[in-house]
Specification:
Blueprint: H1 2-15, H2 37-68, H3 71-76, H4 78-97, H5 108-118, H6 121-133, E1 139-146, E2 151-158, H7 163-167, E3 170-176, H8 183-186, H9 190-197, H10 203-214
Antiparallel strand pairs: 1-2, 1-3
Helix pairs in contact: 2-4
Binding site for Mn(2+): 43, 91, 176, 180
GO cellular component, one term: mitochondrial matrix
Subunit structure: Homotetramer.
């Protein structure tokens, strides 16, 4: 009976379609002047595409190791799966968190939750900016939802560590602070990039994510 239970998951893994690079919901130049077209094109078509391609390669190797019962190789592939899988997850969220019609402040339930958990929108913005500025090297600043406690939390993740997979928090808003996200325009002045990105935050998307998980 236990063997029969394994057939379906293994079959799903073997027949799984490869990950693909999602299309942006706007043109590369749509977020200018806050994030220029050259950055967006390289970020999406080169960096995110590389995570997708490398994830597919790692999963293919993992599938082969799984079929062979090669646990050593399965374990050795975990860093590649985490890094490239996280890169794909994080960027897929990031693109939808941004909008040429973004900026301003959220409304409704999300705004009420922000006021409840951070005191005010200004306090929230200051804290998320500070956490994102303070990421050492490469990583992400996040607004997450702690479903068990029913409250919003701010967190930072190193490299491409996915928020939910490493902290348990559900990702609502992610800010990419890898240098490839801003260097061509803002050089090494990360605070200037973080000041600008608030002008293109898609609060409708963040609010929708919050409403979905709050249910």
């Amino acid at each position: 009976r236990s063997s029969a239970k394994l057939v379906a998951p293994l079959g799903c893994l073997i027949s799984r379609q490869k990950h693909t690079l999602p299309d942006l919901p706007y043109d590369y130049a749509a977020l200018e002047p806050h994030i220029n077209a050259e950055i967006m094109q390289l970020h999406h078509s080169k960096h995110h595409a590389a995570y997708v391609n490398n994830l597919n390669v790692a999963e293919e190797k993992y599938k082969e190791a799984l079929a062979k019962g090669d646990v050593t190789t399965q374990v050795s592939l975990q860093p590649a799966l985490k890094f490239n899988g996280g890169g794909h997850i994080n960027h897929t969220i990031f693109w939808t968190n941004l909008s040429p019609n973004g900026g301003g402040e959220p409304k409704g339930e999300l705004m009420e939750a922000i006021k409840r958990d951070f005191g005010s929108f200004a306090n929230f913005k200051e804290k998320l900016t500070a956490v994102s500025v303070g990421v050492q090297g490469s990583g992400w600043g996040w607004l997450g939802y702690n479903k068990e406690q029913g409250r919003l939390q701010i967190a930072a993740c190193a490299n491409q560590d996915p928020l939910q997979g490493t902290t348990g928090l559900i990702p609502l808003l992610g800010i990419d602070v890898w240098e490839h996200a801003y260097y061509l325009q803002y050089k090494n002045v990360r605070p200037d990039y973080l000041k600008a990105i608030w002008n293109v935050i898609n609060w409708e998307n963040v609010s929708s994510r919050y409403a979905t998980w709050k249910k």
